Amino acid sequence: MLLTYKGNFMFGGGSGAGMAQVYHTNIKLLRKTNRFNSARIFTTTKKEYTKVAGSSVSLKKMSAAQLRETRQQVLQNRKQDRQKNVLLSTAVFVPLLLLFAYVTSMFFANENAIQANNLKLETATNLKHYNFYMSDAAIWLQQQKVANAIFQYRKAKELFPEKFAVNYKLTQVLLSSCALDSLYCEDARESAIRLKDKFPDREEVLRLVAFL
Asked: Which of 45, 96, 119, 133 has a CA positioned 20 to 30 A from the CA of residue 73?
C-alpha cells in the first residue's frame, strides 16, 4: 500500500523533506511488489528459491549425452508441431477448396445452361424469321417481283447460310433473272459456284448449274 503525505507543501522546510521521504518509501515499495521487474536476474531468482527452500539449490551441469538427447527431443517436438500445423491447415483448407470448386462448377454449369437456353431461343426465333422470309419471297415471285424475292431470300440466307433450300432458291431466281432479263448475271454466277461447292452431290444442283 502506498503512503500519502498530508501537510502543507513548503520549499526548503520540513514539509518538503517529508514529501521526499514518502516518495522514496513508495519507490521502495513498488520495487518490492513488482514481480516482473526487469532488474530480476538469474542470481536473484536463485537466492529467492534458496530462501524458500531453506537450503542451497544445487544445479548440475548436463552431460554431452543429455544435451544431445534434449536437443533431439526439442527437434522432435518441433517436427510434431509442424505435422500438427500441416494437418490442421489441411483440415481447414481442403474443405474450403472443395467448396470453392463446387461453387465454381455450379456457376459455370448454370452459365452453360443459360447460354444453351439462349441459343435455343435464338435459333427458334431465327427459324421463325427464316420461314417468313422464304414464304414472303415465294409470294413476291408469284407477283413477278423478282427484286423483292431476291431481297427476302438473302435475308433468309443471313440467318441460316448453310441451309440447302435458301441457297438453291436464291441461285435459281438469280439464274432465271439473268437468262430472262440479263439482270443479276454476275450474282447468279457466283451463287451457282458457291452452291456447287457446298452441295456437289445434289442432282438438282448439277442440273441448275448446267446453264452456266
From this structure: 45
The CB-side HSE value for 176 (13 A sphere, CA atoms) comes to 13
Contact 85, 77 (CB under 8 A): no
| Residue 70 pLDDT grade (very low, low, confident, very high; cuts 50, 70, 90) | confident
Q: Which residues contact 179 (CB under 8 A, 6 or more apart)?
A: 211
Look over the chain and give the mean of its residue pLDDT values, rounded to a whole number: 79
pLDDT (tens digit, 9 = 90+) per residue, 178-187?
Answer: 988 999 999 9
To 10 degrees, what angle do helices 146-159 and 164-181 make? 160
What are the C-alpha distances in Å from 32 to residues 18, 22, 43, 44, 207? 21, 15, 16, 13, 119
Question: If 0-12 CB within 10 Å is exposed, 13-18 middle and 19+ buried, where does residue 105 land?
Answer: exposed
Chain centre distance of CA 27: 61
7 backbone dihedrals φ, ψ, rounded to 5° = 155, 175
Kindly state the greatest CA–CA separation across the chain.
138
Residue type, 77: N
